[in-house]
Amino acid sequence: MDPNMLTLGVLGVLAVGLIIFSLWPRKTGEQDVVKRRLSGRRGTDEEAEIQRKARASASRDLVKKATPVLSKLVMPSSDEEQTNLRVKLACAGYRQAQAQTLFMASKSLTAVLGLALSLAGGFAANLELPMMLGLVAFCTGVGMMLPNLWLSMATSARQQKVQYGLPDTLDLLVVSVESGLALDAALKRVGDEMAPVHPELSEELRIATMETQMGLPRSEALNNMARRSGVKELRSLVSVITQAEHFGTSIAKALRNQAETLRTKRRQAAEERAQKTAVKLMIPLVLFIFPAMGVVLGGPAVLNVMKAVKDNPSLSGG
After folding, report:
1. Residue 198 is part of a domain; what is its CATH number?
2. Is there a single domain that holds both residue 73 and residue 124?
3. C-alpha distances in angstroms, 147 versus 141, 150, 266?
4. Which residue from 12, 111, 157, 189 has the highest number of Cβ atoms inside 10 Å of its Cβ?
């Protein structure tokens, strides 16, 4: 084996081992107390419960210790990048204070896993040093990009759910406003009523209502809702409400028109997807269905021809 490859492998294993050793939870007095209690108790259920709590406590300690260390490796340096990351996580529905740190820690963790797997695969395949370095770089980069891909998919899925729930929510909002409720009360009522059907949009409405109750202007709270969701239809709705309030026009009429527009867009999007279905079906038809049909239809004829040639050698020109 190449000495350079052996040195690289030893250094990689040593680095991973040091990281695991530094993040491994240490024994504490609480764990000693738990062990003493386990030794003195007779009940199986109580022992299982104490063991479960001990494992949960150890897992929390490991996560608390590992998350800051792992997140520092790839944490954005500028405030603008951190703000953009918080906005992306908010669009995906993750607004906790530790969401950014956990996301960056996951990038470091997947990168380390990609590094370890690439080293193991490279040594198993007995690759040369240049190929080994290329494989390590590729797998590490892929591991670091996997959380970004997951975040993009989660954001798209949540935005689609919010977009689908807008027409129904606007209809209920129009009914609430026309029945005599103020806009703030209508938003609160609609947010509570739509929670079982469209929880994502209901959550956004509830947050906007709480911000308004805390003293934030309604237009600013609605703009924050549109920015958190990242849905252009919701931004358009906020603009319509803001303009209706500014010019003194009927909010109920504006909401009704917006609801009809959104429903028309949703129907057109469904028709567009239906028209694309025929084109998308061409690939499985050409690759799988047509060859099978050819075998079924032409197979017996080919077998008959082969049999006739075998029975009459003169037909084959022999």
Report:
1. 1.20.81
2. yes
3. 11, 5, 30
4. 111
Looking at the structure of the chain, the number of domains it has is 2
Q: Is residue 209 part of a domain?
A: yes
Our measurement of the distance from residue 284's CA atom to the centroid of its chain's CA atoms, rounded to an integer in Å, reads 28
Determine the Cα–Cα distance for residues 153 and 159; give it in Å rounded to an integer: 10
CA distance 110 to 118: 12
36-85: pLDDT as tens digits:
554 554 445 666 666 666 666 655 555 555 555 544 555 555 677 777 88
Structure tokens at 217: 């202007």
Closest CA to 89 of 151, 147, 145: 151
Host domain of residue 65: 3-12+45-155
Exposure letters 195-228 (e unless 16+ CB within 10 A, then b): eeebebbbbbbbbbbebbeeeeebeebbbbbbeb
- Helix 99-125 with 3-23: angle, nearest 10 deg: 150
Alpha-carbon gap, residue 256 to 170, rounded angstroms: 7
Identify whether 291 is part of a domain.
no
Query: Does 256 lie in the same domain as 170?
Result: yes
